[in-house]
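User: Can you recover a sequence for this backbone? Please restate the input before giving your answer.

Assistant: Of course. Working from this structure:
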C-alpha cells in the first residue's frame, strides 16, 4: 500500500508527463497544423492541414497546460509542507510541557485557492472560481488593469479609462467579452458598480 506522500509524488510525475506531451502537441499544432492520417508513405514528408476548429484546438491545449502547471505547482507546495520537519521549539507538545497544561489538538490546515488569479503574466489565461479561461489580448489587458486597480486600493474604474489604457477602439467594455467562454466573466468577474453609470470593478469577493 502506497503512502499518501508517494501517491502525491506519483500524481505529480503523471502530470509532468502529460504536460510534456501537451507542450509537444501544441508546438506541432502551432508550427504545422493537424497531421493528415494515416501516413501514406514513410518516404514522403507528413502532410498537415488547419481545420475549422484550429483556434479552439490551440485554446484547449493552452488551457490544459495552464491547468497542469497549476496542479503541479500546488501539489509540490503541499508535498513540501508535508515533508518539512516542524520546529521542536514551536511544537504544541513542548508548550504543554512547559506550561503543565494538556496539549492542544492540532488540525490540518487546508490550502485555500484564491477565487481569482492570473496564470500567465499577461492575464491571457486566468482562473476564476476554479475554472480556467483563455482570453483575447484586449479582454486580458482590461482584467489586468482592473486587478491592478484593486491592488492599489481603488478598485472602481470608468470603462472609458479602462478602454483608453488598453488602447481599445471599442465604445463599451462589454464588447471585449462577447465571444466564447469570456462571456461568462461579464457580470461575474467584472461587475458594474451599483448606482454608477459606466463604472466597473472586479468581483468584490476577489482579494487584492
Amino acid at each position: 500500500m502506497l503512502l499518501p506522500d508517494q501517491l502525491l509524488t506519483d500524481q505529480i510525475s503523471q502530470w509532468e508527463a502529460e504536460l510534456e506531451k501537451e507542450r509537444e502537441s501544441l508546438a506541432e499544432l502551432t508550427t504545422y497544423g493537424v497531421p493528415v492520417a494515416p501516413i501514406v508513405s514513410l518516404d514522403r514528408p507528413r502532410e498537415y492541414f488547419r481545420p475549422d476548429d484550429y483556434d479552439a484546438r490551440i485554446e484547449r491545449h493552452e488551457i490544459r497546460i495552464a491547468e497542469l502547471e497549476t496542479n503541479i505547482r500546488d501539489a509540490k507546495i503541499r508535498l513540501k509542507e508535508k515533508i518539512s520537519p516542524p520546529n521542536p521549539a514551536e511544537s504544541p507538545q513542548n508548550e504543554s510541557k512547559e506550561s503543565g497544561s494538556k496539549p492542544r489538538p492540532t488540525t490540518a490546515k487546508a490550502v485555500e485557492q484564491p477565487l481569482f488569479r492570473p496564470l500567465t503574466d499577461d492575464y491571457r489565461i486566468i482562473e476564476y472560481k476554479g475554472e480556467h479561461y483563455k482570453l483575447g489580448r484586449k479582454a486580458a489587458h482590461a482584467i489586468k488593469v482592473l486587478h491592478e486597480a484593486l491592488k492599489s486600493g481603488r478598485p472602481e474604474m470608468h470603462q472609458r479609462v479602462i478602454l483608453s489604457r488598453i488602447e481599445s477602439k471599442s465604445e463599451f467594455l462589454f464588447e471585449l467579452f462577447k465571444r466564447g467562454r469570456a462571456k461568462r466573466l461579464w457580470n461575474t468577474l467584472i461587475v458594474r458598480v451599483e448606482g454608477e453609470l459606466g463604472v466597473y470593478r472586479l468581483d468584490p469577493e476577489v482579494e487584492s
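That completes the design. The helical segments are 4-31, 54-83, 92-99, 137-151, 159-165.
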